[in-house]
């Protein structure tokens, strides 16, 4: 079967202690420290900006295969 996903790595010095999920015109920000909470924002402008940031991060990230071969 064909591979339908890709894995990429950002530099180790970039630390993400939260996560987010985009759905429709909304974004949910998740955190687990110091307690679990979620904030949902509905804004087409914010979702559009986050998609652009994702695309920039994806372009800058190293493909898994390249990282694997460097080990």
Keywords for this structure?
three-stranded antiparallel sheet; 34% helix; 71 residues; alpha+beta; 2 helices; 5 strands
Q: Could you write a compact summary of the structure shown?
A:
With 71 residues, this protein is of the alpha+beta class.
Structural overview:
By secondary structure, the chain is of the alpha+beta class. It has helices at 44-60, 64-70, and strands spanning 8-9, 18-23, 26-31, 37-42, 62-63. A hairpin with a 5-residue loop joins strand 3 and strand 4. The longest helix has 17 residues, at 44-60. The chain is globular.
Order of helices and strands: EEEEHEH
What's the gyration radius in Å? Answer: 15 Å
Large-scale geometry: globular
Mean pLDDT: 87
Spatial order of the strands in the main sheet? 2-3-4
* N- to C-terminal distance: 27 Å
Low-confidence segments, ≥5 residues, pLDDT <50?
none
- Helix and strand content put the structural class at alpha+beta
Count of discrete alpha- or pi-helical segments spanning 4 or more residues: 2
